[in-house]
Amino acid sequence: MPKRINDTQLRRQQILKSAKKVFLEKGFQGATIDDIAREEGVVRGTILYHYKSKEHLMEAVLEEDGREWEPLLAALVTEHEIPVAERIERIFTLCEEYFDDEKMEMEQYAQKPEELRFLLDQMRLKNFYRQAEGLAALLEEGSESGELSLENPQIQAVSAMFAVFGITGTDITREELKVQLQVIKNRLLASCGNNL
User: Fold this and answer.
1) Which of 5, 66, 108, 136 could disulfide-pair with 157, CB 3.0 to 4.6 Å?
2) Does some domain include residue 152?
3) How far apart are CA 124 and CA 130, in angstroms?
């Protein structure tokens, strides 16, 4: 018997959660709308009512992943009473926490590592773009306030975040990640005239 949920937003969230689980278990190609409906405990039509196709559903899963980090990132960008370098440190801490969450998720679905890596890379990529935007805003603020000295905050932010993206996509331990994040952060700050 299908689960009855009258709240459309709640239903959409539940479908996304079930879809993510099925995509992680079977990969995008192996997953079907029927698999997702079965996982959610609803009929196929319910899924297709909210998401017109498997592709739209996958786009929604990718868009939703990492949303819990957005308020934290937004708060870091707007907390002007905290020095920019300290807020940059906190962004790198968010990257570390995100990696920990992803690592636990990956361990649950390790039976198809290549497909899983591709799917997680798609999810991580959106999140790193968001983090690059936040980091660019902080670098711009630091440049305007004189705390940092740099030519192009956007390029510096994207370079740093994609270095992070690269290392988190490898088979790396938490300890190794901490060291590498520290190296990336220190290089970023040194290139901006700040040697913490």
Assistant:
1) 136
2) yes
3) 10
pLDDT tens by residue, 62-80 = 777 667 777 888 888 899 8
**Token reading at 153:** 């905050």
Radius of gyration for the chain, computed over Cα atoms and rounded to the nearest angstrom:
19
∠ CA 113-34-22, nearest 5°, is 25
Asked if residues 126 and 132 have their Cβ atoms less than 8 Å apart, the reply is no
**What phi and psi, each to the nearest 5 degrees, are found at residue 146?**
90, 0
**48 and 81 belong to one structural domain:** no
Token pair for 156:
């510096």
**pLDDT tens, residue by residue, 140-189:** 999 998 889 888 899 999 999 889 888 877 778 888 888 999 999 999 98
* Distance separating the N- and C-terminal Cα atoms of the chain: 59
DSSP letters spanning 28-87? HHH--HHHHHHHHTS-HHHHHHHSSSHHHHHHHHHHHTTGGGHHHHHHHHH-TTS-HHHH
On whether both 82 and 130 belong to a single domain, the answer is yes
